[in-house]
Design a protein that fits this description.
With 87 residues, the chain is an alpha/beta fold. It contains 3 helices and 3 strands. It has helices spanning 15-26, 45-55, 57-68; strands at residues 3-6, 30-32, 76-78. Helix 1 links the parallel strand 1 and strand 2 (30-32).
Protein backbone atom coordinates (compact mmCIF):
# COMPACT_ATOMS: atom_id res chain seq x y z
CA UNK A 1 0.00 0.00 0.00
CA UNK A 2 0.93 3.66 -0.11
CA UNK A 3 2.60 6.00 2.32
CA UNK A 4 0.44 9.11 2.60
CA UNK A 5 1.25 12.47 4.15
CA UNK A 6 -1.90 14.29 5.21
CA UNK A 7 -1.29 17.96 6.02
CA UNK A 8 -4.04 19.86 7.77
CA UNK A 9 -5.53 23.13 6.57
CA UNK A 10 -5.13 26.53 8.19
CA UNK A 11 -7.75 25.34 10.72
CA UNK A 12 -5.28 22.96 12.34
CA UNK A 13 -5.30 19.20 12.93
CA UNK A 14 -8.94 18.53 13.82
CA UNK A 15 -11.01 15.39 14.29
CA UNK A 16 -12.00 15.43 10.62
CA UNK A 17 -8.36 15.10 9.52
CA UNK A 18 -7.60 12.52 12.19
CA UNK A 19 -10.63 10.53 11.05
CA UNK A 20 -9.50 10.66 7.43
CA UNK A 21 -6.04 9.47 8.46
CA UNK A 22 -7.55 6.60 10.43
CA UNK A 23 -9.75 5.52 7.52
CA UNK A 24 -6.70 5.45 5.27
CA UNK A 25 -4.79 3.39 7.86
CA UNK A 26 -7.66 0.90 8.10
CA UNK A 27 -7.44 0.58 4.31
CA UNK A 28 -3.83 -0.55 4.77
CA UNK A 29 -1.90 2.65 4.11
CA UNK A 30 0.85 4.16 6.23
CA UNK A 31 -0.35 7.66 7.10
CA UNK A 32 1.53 10.57 8.62
CA UNK A 33 -0.64 13.49 9.75
CA UNK A 34 1.66 16.01 11.44
CA UNK A 35 0.23 18.62 13.80
CA UNK A 36 1.90 21.73 12.44
CA UNK A 37 0.21 24.01 15.01
CA UNK A 38 1.10 21.93 18.10
CA UNK A 39 -2.51 21.38 19.15
CA UNK A 40 -4.03 24.73 18.20
CA UNK A 41 -7.22 24.54 16.13
CA UNK A 42 -9.63 27.13 14.78
CA UNK A 43 -13.32 27.13 13.89
CA UNK A 44 -13.16 29.61 11.01
CA UNK A 45 -10.70 30.57 8.32
CA UNK A 46 -10.21 34.00 9.87
CA UNK A 47 -9.40 32.38 13.24
CA UNK A 48 -7.11 29.87 11.51
CA UNK A 49 -4.52 32.47 10.71
CA UNK A 50 -4.07 33.17 14.44
CA UNK A 51 -2.31 29.86 15.19
CA UNK A 52 -0.26 30.21 12.02
CA UNK A 53 0.84 33.69 13.06
CA UNK A 54 1.66 32.53 16.61
CA UNK A 55 3.61 29.46 15.50
CA UNK A 56 5.24 31.21 12.55
CA UNK A 57 5.66 30.08 8.97
CA UNK A 58 9.26 28.96 9.47
CA UNK A 59 8.25 26.67 12.36
CA UNK A 60 5.37 25.22 10.34
CA UNK A 61 7.69 24.46 7.43
CA UNK A 62 10.27 22.88 9.77
CA UNK A 63 7.60 20.70 11.41
CA UNK A 64 6.40 19.60 7.98
CA UNK A 65 9.96 18.73 6.93
CA UNK A 66 10.52 16.73 10.13
CA UNK A 67 7.34 14.77 9.44
CA UNK A 68 8.83 13.65 6.12
CA UNK A 69 12.07 12.29 7.58
CA UNK A 70 12.39 8.58 6.95
CA UNK A 71 9.50 8.40 4.49
CA UNK A 72 9.83 7.27 0.88
CA UNK A 73 11.04 10.01 -1.44
CA UNK A 74 7.67 10.21 -3.16
CA UNK A 75 4.96 9.60 -0.57
CA UNK A 76 1.36 10.08 -1.59
CA UNK A 77 -0.10 13.42 -0.62
CA UNK A 78 -3.65 14.20 0.39
CA UNK A 79 -5.11 17.66 0.52
CA UNK A 80 -8.27 19.05 2.00
CA UNK A 81 -9.18 22.63 1.27
CA UNK A 82 -11.62 24.97 2.92
CA UNK A 83 -13.65 26.27 0.00
CA UNK A 84 -10.86 26.49 -2.57
CA UNK A 85 -10.91 24.16 -5.57
CA UNK A 86 -8.45 21.29 -5.40
CA UNK A 87 -6.00 20.85 -8.28
Amino acid sequence: MATIVLFHSVLGLRPVELGAAERLRRAGHEVVAPDLYAGAVAATLDEGFGPLDRVGWDAVVERARRALVGLPEEPGRAARTEGAPSP
